[in-house]
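tokens incoming
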């Protein structure tokens, strides 16, 4: 199945500037693995040293946060769209 992963602007340098990457996968975890295999420098920004998705990285399937579905085991359908949204800290000084 072909799935599209939308890449946020801060992470695009690790995908050769591409705003979206098409991957072949049947689960969210498979899609992320395909993405980080194709773009290995991106891996450290998405996964921790144990291979788990970093706590500040949010992944959405359509409008649904995968943490409220089956996380990385969430099944995908052909044409599904994933969006990576890293949390950004900050505030008013």
């Amino acid at each position: 199945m072909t799935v599209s992963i939308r890449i946020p602007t801060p992470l695009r340098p690790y995908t050769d500037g591409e705003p979206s990457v098409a991957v072949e996968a049947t689960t969210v975890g498979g899609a992320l693995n395909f993405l980080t295999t194709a773009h290995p420098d991106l891996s450290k920004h998405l996964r921790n040293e144990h291979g788990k998705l970093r706590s500040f990285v949010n992944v959405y399937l359509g409008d649904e946060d995968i943490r409220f579905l089956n996380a990385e085991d969430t099944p995908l359908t052909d044409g599904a769209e994933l969006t990576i949204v890293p949390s950004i800290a900050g505030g008013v000084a």
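note: The radius of gyration is 13 Å.
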